[in-house]
From TrEMBL:
One Pfam family hit: CLASP_N
Name of the featured protein: TOG domain-containing protein
Lineage: Eukaryota, Metazoa, Ecdysozoa, Arthropoda, Hexapoda
GO MF terms, alphabetically ordered: microtubule binding
GO CC list: basal cortex; cytoplasmic microtubule; kinetochore; microtubule organizing center; mitotic spindle; spindle microtubule
Length: 421
């Protein structure tokens, strides 16, 4: 057993009250840490209380400790020390440690007996669950949701159906027209949190194109002035704003065709090509379909050069594949006189598409080659000879498709016979 330590001095009653005894207890513990564990049996961990109060508290603590020693434990001899077998307790044993926590009672869970549900009760519960669910319909909130894909992605049928689904606009004078265009411009310039006014402004713009035919020149000039707002909306975080912008631009290209300036198409096309590789299907599909409408109805030669540069410089596989498909679309739908000035760019784009990593891109490039060769046989043969052996084998392995209808091909000029002198 360890030796007893000297007790701390008696506290001054004038300085220490009953509500400050915890300070003395903490001070004693810090002076003698782990005393009982190390074998010391002194009462240094008990705070010294002043005067008669100390005697009363010490008597209460001794009485409580003696009662705890007399309480027998289940299956053990009360005179045995815990952890020993049959050894009698001595007076030098540890006193009761008042700092130890009391054992907690463990509450046992009692299972409640549940009565079996009768058929009537089961019917009521099922009706209650069914009534708590909110009834929803397919396409609720979106009139043309049935034409969209599983992730909200739109298709051409949705575009064609939503083109003229616009509100009516009242415009009886040039002053009202100016007020209307000013309001549309303000809504398109609003912040990202005001996305609903942007959508309504784009619908009003389509309504102007549908109903205000007398202001066609003014509308075209207005579209030219809001190109930057179109570009900003294509970068919006709201997919609904991006989809509505693509829808409106596709409708503009469909209605005005080559009247849409090439510079306007180039600015919008670059951002839409970037949106094609978006992880959001709504944005990627809407941008792809809008570009398809643009390349079908707007035939500016500058667009071919911009498209080929995108195919050559883009690091995105999705963008390059889309560029190959648009290149094929151009060679199938555009008139020949629009393609003549862009033969070098077309050859470069087709050759790049032949070595594309994606199967879809290579397939579209092969179809573009056969369409190019149908229009320009000599240039097509020269392009075929400039390819490597693998690309040439892949091109010649596939059958040549039929010439597209309503497309006039440029025949090679007949060679003149040599003059015999």
């Amino acid at each position: 057993m360890g030796a007893r330590c000297l007790p701390p001095p008696e506290p001054d009653p004038a300085l220490w009250g009953t509500d400050q005894m915890w300070i003395l207890r903490y001070d004693n513990i810090m002076r003698h840490p782990g005393g009982r564990v190390k074998g010391c049996h002194c009462d240094i961990h008990r705070p010294r209380r002043p005067g008669a109060q100390a005697m009363e508290v010490d008597e209460e603590m001794d009485t409580f400790a003696s009662k705890q020693k007399r309480v027998p434990t289940a299956g053990k001899n009360p005179k045995e020390k815990p952890g020993t077998s049959g050894a009698p307790a001595t007076e030098d044993e540890d006193e009761f440690d008042f700092s130890s926590s009391k054992p907690k009672k463990v509450a046992t869970a009692v299972k409640k007996q549940t009565k079996p549900l009768t058929s009537g009760m089961a019917l009521k519960s099922s009706l209650a669950r069914a009534g708590s669910l909110r009834a929803t319909k397919i396409g609720e909130g979106d009139k043309y949701a049935l034409h969209s894909g599983p992730a909200g992605e739109a298709d051409e049928a949705w575009f064609l159906s939503a083109f003229e689904d616009v509100p009516d606009v009242l415009c009886g004078s040039h002053r009202e027209f100016d007020l209307l265009t000013r309001k549309i411009t303000e809504d398109l310039k609003s912040g990202a949190e005001f996305w609903e006014p942007k959508v309504q402004a784009l619908k009003k713009l389509r309504s102007m194109i549908v109903h205000l035919n007398v202001y066609e020149d003014e509308i075209q000039a207005f579209i030219k002035n809001i190109v930057l707002q179109f570009l900003s909306n294509l970068k919006d975080l709201r997919s609904q704003v991006v989809r509505e912008t693509c829808l409106t631009f596709a409708f503009i290209c469909k209605e005005y065709k080559n009247k849409v300036e090439a510079h306007t198409c180039e600015i919008v096309m670059q951002q839409m090509m970037s949106n094609v590789m978006s992880s959001a299907k709504v944005i990627s599909t809407a941008s792809f379909i809008a570009l398809k409408f643009m390349f079908t109805h707007v035939n500016h030669g500058r667009l071919i050069h911009t498209l080929v540069q995108t195919l050559l410089n883009s690091k995105s596989r999705e963008v390059r594949t889309a560029a190959c498909e648009f290149l094929q679309l151009i060679l199938v739908t555009w008139p020949v006189h629009r393609l003549e000035q862009q033969i070098p760019s077309l050859q470069e784009g087709i050759k790049k598409g032949m070595a594309e990593s994606s199967i879809e891109g290579r397939m579209a490039a092969r179809k573009a080659f056969w369409a190019f060769r149908a229009h320009f046989p000599d240039q097509g043969e020269a392009l075929l000879n400039s390819m490597d052996a693998i690309c040439k084998k892949n091109v010649m392995a596939g059958e040549q498709p039929d010439a597209p209808p309503n497309v006039k091909t440029r025949q090679a000029a007949p060679t003149r016979p040599a003059m015999v002198r």
